[in-house]
Design goal:
Blueprint: H1 8-14, H2 40-47, H3 62-75, E1 79-83, H4 86-95, E2 103-107, H5 112-124, E3 128-132, H6 138-142, E4 149-155, H7 167-176, E5 181-184, H8 189-192, E6 202-206, E7 220-224, H9 238-241, H10 252-256, H11 260-273, H12 279-289, H13 292-311, E8 316-320, H14 330-336, E9 345-350, H15 353-363, E10 368-369, E11 379-381, H16 393-398, E12 406-409, H17 415-430
Parallel strand pairs: 2-3, 2-4, 4-5, 5-6, 10-11
Antiparallel strand pairs: 1-7, 6-7, 8-9, 9-12, 11-12
Helix pairs in contact: 1-3, 3-12, 13-17, 15-17
């Protein structure tokens, strides 16, 4: 008899921590940097990666491990690693397979912080990026690839431009060039989309957003599908396929099989760079994950109502939400996302330019102006003035951020109250 495979709702609530007799029902916080062993040889075997276990929280911690396991299960992956931020997850996902002299391809419609990381900071490390338009034909995107290209990076739903990625198309392109597709699945979450089912190889999240859902911790995660055959492209990925001298010549693909990518990320990058979340933050993240399957559909339901309301308002110049039938990504969203749900974020513009848009934002009362998105409370941001402030007008357009774009993150309050707040703010600018 086959074991029953848990549904995603149950994984949210139950996965990761399985207490035995007399153990706490709730995931404990192992707020310890170190773990005791009884012999020197036991410790030596851990350092040589011959035994699995915990010895120092910078590398692994039982609380963090349980939460990483839950997220790996939610995404349908083989292994995961938590990081101290979404930025760290983006950096590690690339740096784990790229080094000085390498190149990678990224879609241009990505979060502003990721764009800066790729275009400016990685360049200083000798890693070059080429940005492509994700909606361009496959042949066009393929031209960006070079012999030293190591991966293709993209976002399921871009922040803040809300472009929907055709994951299967991007996977075809990446695999035709013998490299993995890395997808930032922050906005969709595994509740609405599991990129591995569409051909992606590695998934990352800013867990600060929907996964936490309450704006209580900053964090990130990387999940590996275990499906990309690194050894088949060994010349491209020497870090995974040739001996690591810092571990007595160990070869990750040989020693860890489908767990090679995450193991290397843990024992090499975390060892040397140390962007580990505290166990307490992992505990808070787990509390968020336990209700993720309840919150995400509510976010999307509310966002749909908000989008339908805004679409009819004379002061709204344009609106972008894939739940609207006339949206260019509507058909793709219906096909790729569970129930056609994309996320709880709506973007739109106000007629009359930037000044009027700012007056509208300043007139909102229930909705808070915060540098955040995707939590339980409705919030708003003007990216060109805030998160993407460092980008030039040209870069803004390339990243899919129009100067008048308002990012409206719809919370899980009553939709009528959110719409009432929008209505009174629109009334305030109608007078001007």
């Amino acid at each position: 008899m086959h074991a029953h495979i848990m549904n995603i709702d149950t994984i949210c609530v139950q996965s990761g921590w399985n207490p035995k007799k007399g153990e706490p029902r709730v995931l404990p916080i192992y707020q310890s940097t170190t773990f005791r062993y009884e012999t020197s040889d036991q410790m030596a075997r851990l350092f040589d990666l011959k035994d699995a276990g915990f010895f120092y929280t910078r590398l692994q911690n039982p609380t963090n491990e349980c939460v990483a396991k839950k997220i790996a299960e939610l995404e349908g992956g083989v292994a995961a690693i938590l990081t101290s931020s979404g930025q760290a997850a983006s950096f590690y996902s690339i740096f784990n397979i790229c080094e000085a002299g390498d190149h990678f391809v990224s879609t241009s419609a990505i979060y502003g912080g990721t764009y800066n990381l790729f275009a400016v900071t990685l360049k200083k490390l000798g890693i070059e990026v080429t940005f492509v338009d994700q909606d361009a034909p496959e042949e066009e995107i393929s031209k960006a690839f070079r012999p030293n290209t190591k991966c293709l990076f993209s976002e399921t739903i871009s922040n803040p431009s809300l472009q929907v990625l055709d994951i299967a198309k991007m996977a075809r392109i990446a695999h035709a060039h013998g490299v993995p597709l890395i997808v930032d699945n922050t906005f969709a979450t595994p509740i609405n989309c599991r990129p591995f089912e569409h051909g992606a190889d590695i998934v990352m999240h800013s867990t600060t957003k929907y996964m936490d859902g309450h704006a209580t911790q900053v964090g990130g995660v990387i999940v590996d599908s275990g499906k990309f055959d690194w050894a088949a492209h060994a010349d491209k990925f020497p870090g995974l396929c040739t001996p690591d001298e810092s571990y007595h010549g160990l070869v990750y693909t040989e020693a860890f099989g489908e767990g090679a990518y995450i193991t290397k990320c843990t024992v090499q990058l975390m060892r040397d760079l140390g962007s580990i979340p505290s166990p307490f933050n992992a505990f808070l993240l787990n509390l968020g994950l336990e209700t993720l399957h309840l919150r995400v559909p509510r976010h999307c339901e509310n966002a749909q109502k908000v989008a339908e309301f805004l679409e009819k308002q004379p002061d709204v110049a344009w609106i972008n939400y894939s739940g609207l039938p006339n949206n260019p990504y509507h058909e793709l969203a219906q096909r790729q996302f569970d129930g056609g749900r994309s996320c709880g974020v709506v973007t739109f513009g106000i007629k009359g330019g930037r000044e009027r848009a700012i007056k509208f934002i300043d007139s909102l009362k229930l909705t808070a102006i915060v540098t955040h998105v995707a939590d339980a409370r409705t919030c708003v941001l003007h990216p060109a003035s805030h998160t993407h402030r460092q980008l030039s007008d040209e870069q803004l357009i390339e990243a899919g951020v129009r100067p008048d774009l308002i990012r409206f993150s719809v919370g899980i309050e009553d939709a009528d109250d959110i719409i009432a707040d929008l209505r009174q703010a629109l009334a305030a600018i109608a007078e001007s």
